[in-house]
Amino acid sequence: MTHTSTAIIMRTWEYGESDLLVSFFTPDQGSLKGVAKGARKSRKRFSNCLDLLCVSRLEYDKRPGRDLCFLHSGKLIRVFPALRSDFASLALASYMLELTEVLFPVGVVEERMFHLLSYLMDAIEGGGEVRQVRIQFEARALALAGYGINVSRCCVCGRSYAGEGRAVFRQQSGGISCMRCGKETAYSPGLDPDSVRLLKSVQARPCTEAMAVNCQEKTLEEIRRVLDLHIQYQTGKRFKSAEYLL
Ligand SMILES: [Zn+2]
Known about the structure:
The chain is α+β, with helices and mostly antiparallel strands. It has 2 domains: 2-78, CATH 2.40.50.140; 81-148 and 186-244, de novo design (two linked rop proteins) (Up-down Bundle). The chain is built from 6 helices and 9 strands; from the N terminus they run E-E-E-E-E-H-H-H-H-E-E-E-E-H-H. The chain has helices at 81-85, 87-103, 111-125, 130-144, 193-204, 217-235, and strands spanning 2-15, 19-26, 30-36, 55-61, 68-78, 150-154, 167-170, 175-177, 190-191. The strands form 2 sheets. It has a 5-stranded mixed β-barrel. Helix 4 packs across helix 6. The longest helix is centred in the C-terminal third of the chain and has 19 residues, at 217-235. The protein is elongated and about 65 Å long. It binds zinc ion. Zinc ion binds at residues 154, 156-157, 159, 177-178, 180-181.
């Protein structure tokens, strides 16, 4: 059956003499991998639309029982020239794609994830601050994948967090505890009320809503440490592209 989807091109590999393997992320079918026959020889059917990190409209057949779909043709919709020409932006976008592949593997469809990705790629293209975009992406992508950090109550005693006093992140619970139930260490870093509030609002924000994060350096750093520990624990992975991030 032939489908047409908007897609973000996530990765390509040379295949055979003239073909290209392409992995792409769509709003309606999730992550897919397909073969574009002759794409490296004739550029007519796939004119620039299979370049990494562009948004294209792809026409393809999904074949029952087969992992690879068959790409018929494509049309380029959007490129991100500023994002591609800046190292820090490109590193962040590559990392966003890598995390997407892990959180939403083939077969897991989440339309909002597509919108989050393309919205934040737009934000980077428009000059959005890389560290802030990264936090927004991670917090929301994790929440969409079902790994949101529970900041509403203490994960040990159950007391609801009223937004006062420091809290402690608990890696194994994926939540916070009050200061009576936990103490700050390198693996259970503390969070100020401002940090908890920001984390909560970032996780809950719709994916395509603009969000200017006005916060202090300390808040960003606290959230950064918590997200690093949380992602490490939940995915069990080290991300190659993360090594190049600021
Ligand atoms: Zn407690």
